[in-house]
Amino acid sequence: MAVTPTQRLLAAREQMQREFEVIQAAVGPDEQFAYEASTAQWLTSQLPGADFAQIGWAIILVSAAMYPDLPMAATEGNVQQGGQRFTLILASRVGEALLADVPSAAPPGDSFEVGPKLASRDLSEIYSEMPWLPSSSVPDADPAVLRREFQQAMSEAMTEVRQELVSELPGADLSAIGWALLGTGTTLLARTVQFDQRRWRPGRQARKKLQTTAFNHGLLLAAIGEYLVDPLV
Fold first, then answer.
1. d(Cα 113, Cα 194) in Å, to the nearest integer?
2. Is the pLDDT of residue 227 over 70?
3. What is the 3-state secondary structure (H, E, C) of the chain?
4. Total domain count for the chain?
5. Does residue 201 sit within a domain?
6. 2: in domain
7. What whole-number distance in Å separates Cα of residue 30 and Cα of residue 110?
8. Among candidates 222, 228, 208, which has minimal Cα distance to 127?
9. 194 domain-assigned
10. What is the residue range of 65's domain?
11. Residue 166: CB atoms within 10 Å
């Protein structure tokens, strides 16, 4: 399906591009963000037959929808928002890399496949370590139960994201988008320990909060992906 960007999609892309330029100017060129192209290439290898124009726009839209309302310059030094912003900016760059590769990608088919490496990505262990989930303290808790409890706790945010995708990308394959968000989010989880501190210069406690916030938003992106693939609530 060809994507005709709505005003909301265009505004989301412009917003994330502006925020990316602020961070890039602070941390320097290239190396901090080099992973985006490799993540996009990995997604294309794991989702043959998917429409990557749809997916690229969807990742940018979701990133913008979750992004703090105030621009980065207005919240300088806010460590908690710093982790959130960094994660979502990186996610948006994966979307940009997918859009850049669309002309050379294989045309989308009538259906898509999920590669084994992406299909094996599982959030159950992370859910089990969340003390605020009722079943997290239950030995050998059913992963489906943990996922349902997480989705119930985050149902309002997840429903809003799904509705926005349906509104701005009518006819889009939400399952393919979900798998791409799951792949992007789980990749970002591994990136949080490499968070560049130079812009905020936090101490040890602030750095921990920064990494925790970055991790939580990587998890939320991945969990939204799981919800789009298989909503349990």
1. 31
2. yes
3. CCCCCCHHHHHHHHHHHHHHHHHHHHHCCCHHHCHHHHHHHHHHHHCCCCCHHHHHHHHHHHHHHHCCCCCHHHHCCCHHHHHHHHHHHHHHHHHHHHHHHHHHCCCCCCCCCCCHHHHCCCCHHHHHCCCCCCCCCCCCCCHHHHHHHHHHHCHHHHHHHHHHHHHHCCCCCHHHHHHHHHHHHHHHHHHHHHCCCCCCCCCHHHHHHHHHHHHHHHHHHHHHHHHHHCCCC
4. 1
5. yes
6. no
7. 36
8. 222
9. yes
10. 7-229
11. 12
- Say yes or no to pLDDT of 58 above 80: yes
Both tokens assigned to 57:
């726009």
Closest residue by Cα to residue 141 from 130, 155, 151: 130
Structure tokens at 29: 């060129």
Q: Radius of gyration of the chain from Cα atoms? A: 17
pTM of the model as a whole: 0.86
Can you tell me the distance from the alpha carbon of 118 to that of 179, in angstroms, rounded to the nearest whole number? 8
Is 118 part of a structural domain of the chain? yes
Q: Is the pLDDT assigned to residue 182 strictly greater than 90?
A: yes
SS (H, E, C) 173-215: CHHHHHHHHHHHHHHHHHHHHHCCCCCCCCCHHHHHHHHHHHH
Rounded CA separation 96/227 (Å): 23
Average pLDDT of the chain is: 83
Q: For residue 120, what are the contacts with CB-CB under 8 A and spacing of at least 6?
A: none
